[in-house]
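Support request, please re-run this one:
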Amino acid sequence: MNRDTDITALAERVLSEARARGLRIATAESCTGGLVSVALTDIPGSSDVFERGFITYSNEAKQELLGVPADVIRTHGAVSTEAAMALASGALARSRADMAVSITGVAGPGGGSAHKPVGLVHFAVASRAGPARARHESFGNPGRDAIRVAAARTALEMLLEAIRC
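Re-run finished. Output below.
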């Protein structure tokens, strides 16, 4: 990953603020392949906040490991708000974390379509303390690595926002 100090600083803030509130975090990553988990666990002492991470790249893994309903994938696709919400909820349900973030998208260079182009990424944060939130971003097509890093950054920003609420 071509990670910069920006992502490291963001991960440090996520860990610090979660730690101060006694919160534990889980991740459910698809197109980022674990980059959010790496950003968090690269920081010494992260084990008191980072509970676990799921890398669910295939549709089968999303269903088997996180309980994403086959109907969600069949009806909306793996790259959708519905799938992101199900991934985050599944990670929360299958962990001891207080909140979970999910990322699912099209990092490219292939795999995109007119409806779901390369660079489209859906995110969700689920929390035991409140309602889940979702959003999506269209990062364009600056290349696979750039999309994955931008998605990891966005997921960390969403976690930080959820921690502060």
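The domain at 5-164 is CATH 3.90.950.20 (Maf protein). The chain has one domain: 5-164.
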